[in-house]
Amino acid sequence: MATLTLAPGTGWTERLLPAVRRALPVAVTAVVILGGWQLAVRAFDVPSFIVPAPTEILAAFGHDFGTIMSASRITVQAVLLGLVGGSLLGIAVALLISRLPAASAPVLTAAVVLNCAPIVALAPIFNNWFGVTSIQSKAGVAAVMVFFPVLVNTTRGLLQVTPLHLELMSSMAARPRQVAVMLRFPNALPYLFNALKLGTTLSVIGVIVTEYFGGPSNALGVYIAYQAALPRFEYAWAGILVASALGLLMFGLVGWIERLLTPWQEPDHDDLMS
What we know:
The protein is mainly alpha-helical and 274 residues long. The chain has one domain: MetI-like (MetI-like fold), CATH 1.10.3720.10. It is 80% helix and 0% strand. The protein is built from eleven helices and no strands. Helix 4 (104-115) runs antiparallel to helix 6 and helix 8 (176-212) runs antiparallel to helix 10 (233-261). The longest helix has 37 residues, at 176-212.
């Protein structure tokens, strides 16, 4: 009776093992950090206003799960709006600079000045412009924070094109738009995704900090500030960890999209993660 055998190197196990290898160090590190945190709090009897134990934070998260998730949805909307708006504006200005290199110096100087403005200064200004409870004020601060890294990195990718490739496109009588779409922008994609990964965390920080200065009553930043003022620090930490998880989730999503759109970069990522 004939039997069916699988050739070596095939099957779901071969596809699963690399993912397990990449995830295992992260899981072990998380367990060590959380375990050490729990032991240190219990061993030294650390007060909760300094730092609560992970078990207390987990209990608070479970007790207030519905409220925290509802607040997270409001914050996620502002984060996504700011991330998309800041990214699109940064890409548009970078494309303009690539077409007009003489304008790069003044535009980048203005961007640097804008980027140096602290969040604590921008937050009340945007709240006054758009309204304390408006989502536009939170998204506006996030967009400003995302705009600069996207502009700088995308401009670098658009301009750092191999001269040989430019000569080849010129020899084929390619128009500037064709050069931008077929050569410059694909070359800038890795730079852009690096900026977007940074922008995911910056947008979360910008929205949360702006919500500290006022926002919808069910926003995550407002929830954290309110719980810390009561004081119920384990609940505030639960909100902080959810905000951190949001940043990590968006970072991973951008990385996944990067692997789809820039498959030629995937071997480099595998080398870095192994």
